[in-house]
Design a protein that fits this description.
32% of the residues lie in helices and 23% in strands. With 504 residues, it is of the alpha+beta class. It has 3 domains: 132 residues, D-Maltodextrin-Binding Protein, domain 2; 108 residues, Alpha-Beta Complex (Dipeptide-binding Protein, domain 1); 211 residues, Dipeptide-binding Protein, domain 3 (Roll). Helix 14 runs antiparallel to helix 15. It is globular, with a radius of gyration of 23 Å.
């Protein structure tokens, strides 16, 4: 216990000594971001940083409507195979490079063809780009793409300086240059990312902090303690177990929004040598793992009932959620039967990598206990989140507890994880029928056709279980009561426009 107290005290001291200036906003993140390159990155906290650093072609409202950002207006051709966009003419990148149609064309080319890009599948429908004028561009599509605008509202639509990107290559993330309201100042890994206000931003008057510091603090208790002590101004992902404490503190305000994503366990089925094991080869083991878990009990025990049990990539609040696949009841005996059928009547071992943050560890300890009753002996390997992602990409894992923050369009929650060779398909799962169904859903503008395609794909994926879905979270933010102007969004991002801190 003494060690915990010393660690907490040190963390509080560290945060306090960063120097709290009146014009500085200090945001505590659950983990550190990975590479700060929109084409290469994949972390949720990285997207939080990008919200201040990198403007996109379009954005969303809290009600998930697509609205202008760098693009002022747009229209699709009648057949859906051409998208024409008009662009702002008062924007420059942080290095002085002008933002125009040529810059957009360069960004799309980079996202599609840059070797390290993870955005390739998100923009795969774009077959050509035509610059129509200095601030007008047309995207030609191989087929209609119902998901494209949602993709352009996220990392695939983030615009980076073509000058800086060309010069830096794969090292762009060391000194990212975008066009957002804040520009990159410094980064100390596992300690802080600091942005400073970009004076030439077209809407600079709506941003009221000179600097914004993002501080990775994995421990939920330490994050809240820092907020209470004044070491930070706000935190993302307040633990549900800390909600009552935060709400009872007059110096803290709490905001929340239902997320668009999911949390689960990804199984390595075909990604390198580590997939060459019973878990990767036999779906019955993955089915047994799913059946050993009481998802509603997890929600109650770990999250005080604040979240939602889940077994799909879409939350129950989504119109794309399929009632054909209700959350399965726990069935330990059936799980044991499946293990025996697969040749493991005495049980089987499973190594699961897990982020080294409080909630994932608590979650997996509960899953570990549940699975053991069915004969699944889970060992947990705790890793810093960026390391976990790197190992997952490389195939250096058997199973991984990981989630996804969710996207406006359902395609963003499933296509890039389940399509053969997609950018985020770290399990290397491949099924031609699933590919066809998900591509049909992506290219159709008929909502019924899309929903039927997703439901049919889910039937296959429920059976083969490359991802064992567990729950859907609610984003909970805690802020100093002196902060005003914060609006919660279901994508979990922190938009700084209009935010202020009253100094007293």
């Amino acid at each position: 216990m003494k060690l915990v107290k010393l660690t907490l005290a040190a963390a509080l001291l560290s945060a306090t000594t960063l120097g709290a200036q009146a014009s500085e906003l200090r945001i505590a993140l659950q983990s550190d971001a990975d590479v700060l390159d929109p084409d290469q990155s994949r972390t949720f906290v990285g997207r939080i940083v990008y919200t201040a650093l990198c403007d996109k072609l379009v954005d969303i409202t809290p009600d998930l409507e697509i609205i202008p950002q760098l693009a002022t207006e747009w229209s699709f051709s009648e057949d859906g195979k051409q998208l024409t966009m008009k662009l702002r003419d008062d924007v420059i990148f942080h290095d002085g490079t002008p933002f125009d149609a040529e810059a957009v064309a360069a960004n799309i080319d980079r996202s599609q063809n840059f070797e390290e890009s993870r955005r390739k599948s998100e923009l795969s429908s774009i077959s050509g780009v035509e610059v129509l004028g200095s601030h007008e561009i047309r995207l030609d599509l191989a087929d209609a793409d119902a998901t494209l605008m949602a993709q352009l509202a996220d990392r695939a639509g983030m615009m980076v300086s073509p000058t800086a990107a060309t010069e830096a290559g794969a090292d762009f993330g060391l000194n990212p240059v975008c066009s957002g309201p804040y520009k990159f100042k410094e980064r100390v890994a596992q300690d802080r990312i600091v942005l400073e206000k970009f004076a030439d931003y077209y809407n600079a008057d709506e941003y009221h902090f000179d600097t914004v510091s993002y501080l990775p603090i994995p421990d939920t208790t330490v994050r809240l303690a820092n907020l209470q002590s004044g070491g930070i101004d706000m935190l993302e992902r307040l633990a549900a177990t800390d909600l009552a404490q935060a709400e009872s503190d007059a110096g803290i305000q709490v905001a929340s929004a239902v997320s668009l994503g999911y949390q689960g366990i990804t199984i390595n089925v075909a990604n390198g040598e580590k997939a060459d094991n019973p878990w990767g080869k036999d779906k019955r083991l993955r089915q047994a793992l799913s059946l050993s878990i009481d998802r509603e009990a997890i929600n109650q025990v770990v999250f005080n009932g604040a979240f939602a049990a889940g077994n799909q990539p879409f939350p129950p609040t989504s119109p794309w959620y399929s009632k054909d696949f209700p959350v399965p009841a726990r069935d330990v005996e059936q799980a044991k039967a499946l293990l025996a059928e697969a040749g493991f009547p005495d049980g089987i071992d499973l190594e699961v990598q897990v982020p080294n943050t409080t909630i994932p560890l608590q979650l997996m300890q509960v899953v570990q206990s549940m699975a053991s009753e069915a004969g699944i002996r889970i060992s947990l390997v705790s890793k810093e989140f960026a390391t976990l992602l790197s190992d997952q990409t490389a195939g250096d894992y058997t199973a991984s507890q990981i989630g996804w923050s969710g996207r406006v369009d359902p395609d963003g929650n499933i296509h890039q994880f389940m399509i053969t060779d997609a950018g985020l398909n770290d399990s290397k799962y491949s099924n031609a029928e699933v590919d066809a169904l998900l591509n049909t859903a992506r290219t159709s503008n008929d909502q019924q056709v899309r929903k039927e395609s997703y439901t049919a794909a889910r039937a296959i994926l429920n059976d083969e279980a490359p991802i064992v879905y567990l729950y859907h979270e609610t984003w909970i933010w805690a802020l100093d009561s002196a902060i005003s102007g914060f609006t919660p969004y279901p994508d979990g991002m922190i938009r700084l426009k209009g935010m202020k801190k009253e100094e007293g």
